[in-house]
Amino acid sequence: MVNRLSEDSAPRRGWRTAALMLAGLLAVAISAALIVSLNTATRQRDSALGWQQHSYEVMILARELDATMAKSEATLGRFVISGNKDVGRTYFDAWRRAGTLLDKLTSETSDRPEQRALIAALRDAYTVRGSELSDVALRTNYGQNDQALSTYYEAGKAPSLSRLDGLLTRIIANERAILDARTNTADDTVALSNRIATILSFVGLIILLCAAWLGRSAWAAWRDRQDEEQRNSELEYAVAERTGELSDANTRLMAEMVEREFAEERLRQAQKMEAVGQLTGGIAHDFNNMLGVVIGGIELARRRITEPAPEVERHLANAMEGANRAAALTKRLLSFARAEPLLPVGLDPDTLIRGMGEMLDRTLGDTIEVIILEGASWSVFIDAHQMENALLNLAVNARDAMEYGGKLTISTADVNLVEGEIAEAPVGDYVRIAVSDTGEGMSAKVLERIFDPFFTTKTVGKGTGLGLSQIFGFVRQSGGGIAATSTPGHGTTVSIYLPRHCGNVTAMADSAEQSDGRSHYTGVVTLVIEDDPRVLNATVGALRELGHLPLPCASAADVPALLREHRDIGLIVSDVLMPGVTGPELVAAIHTLHPELPVLFVTGFAGDVEDPQAFGGHEVLRKPFTIASLGDAVERVLDRANAAQSKAA
Fold it and tell me: Is residue 540 domain-shared with residue 483, that is, in the same domain?
């Protein structure tokens, strides 16, 4: 009987097993089909949404282009009425941005032939419209406001305007039609996928019900227990793995937060220094002009008084000393603001530092041992005078930090900076000039503020707080970077990073002793171009004192007439920054008609002349200047001009 039951149950167990396997296979097939269908629908939907987004972007871009051109034309109207050059530049910037938007619109619609044709026509209309508006701007720029206004009104009725509007409208309409078609396609695809998913889900539900009925057997229950145990094991493993991933992600997130906070702090510091620099640069520029008048007046007074009383001489000497100290302070302010004019040349840093050895020994005294370690094989492109001042400032700071003596080490090395190693210094080759001392060092709190203007740790009367900020401005103006490290009780190291120069290197020459400005050149008719009347009078008086014949000119617009009236002009002395035109631009225009005229630029601020090559190789004299330095500069300019004429002959 038992055998009979066993025999009867064996086919039943086989049938159940086969039924379960078949149900499982069908379930897997249905699930796979459902997953594939859903994935296909998702991809098609995402693709359609992406193209819809693209169409929206094209329409927004077209409307932005229309708005930008309208804004540009409105700005041009204000420019025609006001004649303000700044408004004119705003018009030009807006119209140029419209061109940029047109280029982007061309790129975004390059995949559709019907849009490409419209974009090409739009670009032609944009060019025609730009020519019409440029004529209005050009007339306004040359002061023909009435004609410009008439032309502006005519341009407002030009066919190009309606053509631009029509083309933009057609482009947007085409894109909207494409958008509607894509939307319909996406809706149809999603609807079809939903129907297929519904059918497959229904069939799958039936199969699952059958499998559940078959699974009531003992074998199915035992199998379910085994599967449950397996799933629990897999779940525990997945939880542990996910926990590890979350821990790693949290660690990375914390590191990124620290790095971001550090970068934000450096950005805030750079922005603060930039804001203070702009403020001090503007103040120092105006102060420089006033100092030039003061120094010139004091020198002229001392020269005109043949036998001054001791009290008068003492007062004049005190006034000159105060003016010179104010000039030095102004130079530091301009250097910090990166507005001090640089006259860079290619030079070997080791040669420059070696040439400063005697001056450093004399300045620092016998208690400081100076060690120079030459390790740089690359050259740099910098202003040698500013570099010497920077190194001297660092050396004096190091001396003050070593009250009872110590060692000052100046070392050079070739380095390659990576991204973010030195704030605002791009990746590349640099020469590092490090100045190290064995002094008392600084705390981290003090180290954070050492480049702030007017911040100093010295007692009152022993420092202005502008030394390191001046170095900071000079290094940034030279395209480099600066960093400082310090440990209390172990000294400080300030490292200057200057970009590598691959051009010619200029040999360092010994500085000549300062003369009294007297020259074998006298009676030279000199055209003096200066917009500040006080500085103009002071410069004219100094040239007259040197025996020359100055011809004052307070406006660049008067220069052509003066050149025509005075054919005997032998020298031009020009300011750099003037209303409407810079000195280098004015001299370039003069040299087209009078290339033989020698030129001397006089400036105390070079914020708008960033490229030293703009001076065209002419002599540059820094404000405020003495009569002697003016005479020496004039002699150098005339010597160079005579040498060039002799060589040409």
Answer: no
Question: Which CATH number is 33's domain given?
Answer: 1.20.120.30
Six-digit token pair at 596?
Answer: 């033989």
Which of 30-44, 195-209, 431-445 has the lowest average pLDDT? 30-44
Same domain for 485 and 547:
no
- 497 and 536 share a domain? no
Query: Rounded CA gap, 189 and 532, in Å?
Result: 76
* Predicted pLDDT at 85: 83
Tokens of 503: 């051009």
pLDDT for 222 equals 75
Question: Is residue 350 located within the same domain as residue 485?
Answer: yes
Residues 533, 490 share a domain: no
Q: Could you tell me the pTM of the whole model?
A: 0.40
Separation CA 472–CA 449 (nearest Å): 12
Distance (Å, rounded) from C-alpha 567 to C-alpha 553?
15
What is the rounded distance in angstroms from the CA atom of residue 449 to the CA atom of residue 444?
A: 9
Domain residues for the domain of 111 are: 15-216
Q: What is the pLDDT of residues 285-333, one digit of tens each?
A: 666 677 777 777 777 777 767 666 777 777 677 777 776 666 666 665 5
Q: How far apart are the first and last CA of the chain?
A: 138
How far apart are alpha carbons 476 and 167 in whole angstroms? 49
Residue 318: its H or E element = helix 310-336
635 and 603 in a single domain? The answer is yes
Does residue 172 sit in the same domain as residue 24? yes
Residue that the structure tokens 């040698």 belong to: 384
Check whether the bond before 341 is cis (ω within 30° of 0).
no
Q: Which of 187, 216, 245 is the last residue of a domain?
A: 216
- Cβ distance 620 to 343 under 8 Å? yes
Residues 336-348: pLDDT tens digits?
A: 554 455 678 889 9
Task: Find tokens 């041009």 and name the residue.
Answer: 76
Length of the chain: 649
Which residues, at least 6 apart from 625, have a Cβ–Cβ distance to it below 8 Å? Answer: 292, 295, 602, 633
CATH code: domain of residue 603: 3.40.50.2300
* DSSP character at residue 557: G
**In sequence order, what are the beta bridge partners of 64?**
none
- Listed in sequence order, the residues at least 6 apart from 641 whose beta carbon sits closer than 8 Å to its beta carbon are 596, 598
Query: Which CATH number characterizes residue 385's domain?
Result: 3.30.565.10
Instruction: Report CA 26 to chain centroid distance, whole Å.
Output: 65
Residue 227, in any domain of the structure = no
Number of domains forming the structure of the chain: 3
Task: Go through 600-629 and write b for each residue having 16 or more CB atoms within 10 A of its CB, e for each that does not.
Answer: bbbbbbbbebeebebbeebbbbbbbbbbbb
625: in domain: yes
Same domain, 529 and 636: yes
Q: What is the amino acid identity at position 143?
A: G
pLDDT at 110 over 90: no
**Three-class DSSP category at 500:** strand
